TrEMBL record:
<protein>
    <submittedName>
        <fullName>Uncharacterized protein</fullName>
    </submittedName>
</protein>
<dbReference type="Pfam" id="PF00931">
    <property type="entry name" value="NB-ARC"/>
</dbReference>
<keyword id="KW-0547">Nucleotide-binding</keyword>
<dbReference type="InterPro" id="IPR002182">
    <property type="entry name" value="NB-ARC"/>
</dbReference>
<dbReference type="InterPro" id="IPR027417">
    <property type="entry name" value="P-loop_NTPase"/>
</dbReference>
<dbReference type="GO" id="GO:0043531">
    <property type="term" value="F:ADP binding"/>
</dbReference>
<feature type="domain" description="NB-ARC">
    <location>
        <begin position="171"/>
        <end position="269"/>
    </location>
</feature>
<dbReference type="GO" id="GO:0006952">
    <property type="term" value="P:defense response"/>
</dbReference>
<feature type="domain" description="Disease resistance N-terminal">
    <location>
        <begin position="10"/>
        <end position="101"/>
    </location>
</feature>
<feature type="coiled-coil region">
    <location>
        <begin position="22"/>
        <end position="66"/>
    </location>
</feature>
<dbReference type="Pfam" id="PF18052">
    <property type="entry name" value="Rx_N"/>
</dbReference>
<keyword id="KW-0175">Coiled coil</keyword>
<keyword id="KW-0611">Plant defense</keyword>
<comment type="similarity">
    <text>Belongs to the disease resistance NB-LRR family.</text>
</comment>
<keyword id="KW-0677">Repeat</keyword>
<dbReference type="InterPro" id="IPR038005">
    <property type="entry name" value="RX-like_CC"/>
</dbReference>
<dbReference type="InterPro" id="IPR041118">
    <property type="entry name" value="Rx_N"/>
</dbReference>
Length: 274
């Protein structure tokens, strides 16, 4: 379970307000909306690291604590800025008279330009902390130490070339025929049976056969452990279907990973094996 500690609560509150600010209720300038969307993505990645640091509070060194505290203070400053903007913009009367409406437009126009300046300054601070995070190698230092990986016994079949299989050719052709059906609908082909019958081996042989024949534009083979880590699974898929996107995804959360994978796979014939 993700930890909640110094900085995490402030970041959660801030991200909630950024989401509210991006709603249609607030008529943001176009460039401000883009800046806030950037901040939301960048801060979501910072939150992931803050949660890891919260899980390791007693093991943090001075660099990690300093970075965490600066991000916490930055979160408070950003939240104050957003609160002031929301208060000034308000919602107004439902049917104001002409003069009141004109005055309100001038007031909100000034408020929108004012927040543009403040957001620009806050963005510079966010980027500074992101660069400092990379310089300190905080992800590298604290990511591996907080993860426990359960080894799935099926992994041996995924990385092993199997030779001399008995009675595998027929089932493999049958599964391939189901997958290569001309229908454009999504297909799920389950391979069921009791342990030791070679289900994973069969799936891997289908994967290798279709991969060598160029039948699919992209493929991914993953192992789903008994304790599912969905973010790790999505990153595993992304690493196999688009290495360039994978290099950028280390701080992404589930929703952003799903959007990127969906974007990459749209319009392609793909296979995912597990």
């Amino acid at each position: 379970m993700a930890g909640v500690g110094v900085g995490t609560g402030a970041m959660n509150s801030l991200l909630g307000k950024l989401t509210a600010l991006l709603s249609n209720e607030y008529n943001l300038l176009k460039r401000v909306r883009k800046e806030i969307q950037f901040l939301e993505r960048e801060l979501s990645g910072m939150r992931v690291l803050l949660e890891r640091l919260a899980d390791m509070e007693e093991k943090l060194d001075g660099l990690a604590k300093g970075w965490r505290d600066r991000v916490r203070d930055l979160s408070y400053d950003m939240e104050d800025c957003i609160d002031r903007f929301m208060d000034r913009l308000g919602s107004g009367d439902a049917k104001p008279k002409f003069m009141k409406r004109t005055a309100r437009r001038l007031k909100t126009l000034w408020a929108r330009h004012d927040i543009a300046t403040q957001i620009k300054e806050l963005k510079a601070r966010v980027m500074e902390e992101s660069e400092r995070r990379d310089r300190y190698k905080l992800d590298e230092s604290y990511y591996s130490a907080t993860r426990t990986v359960e080894i799935d016994p099926r992994m041996t079949a995924i990385h092993e070339e199997v030779k001399g299989l008995v009675a595998m050719d027929g089932p493999m052709k049958h599964v391939i025929a189901l997958l290569m059906d001309e229908s454009k609908e999504l297909k799920v082909v389950p391979i069921v049976g009791s342990g030791g019958l070679g289900k994973t081996t069969l799936a891997m042989e289908v994967y290798r056969k279709l991969g060598s024949g160029g039948d699919f534009q992209c493929q991914a083979c993953v192992s789903v452990s008994r304790t599912l880590d969905l973010v790790k699974l999505l990153k595993d898929i992304l690493s196999q279907i688009n290495k360039d996107a994978y290099k950028e995804c280390q701080s992404w959360e589930k929703e952003q990973l799903i959007r990127e994978i969906k974007h990459i796979l749209t319009g392609k014939r793909c296979g995912v094996y597990r």
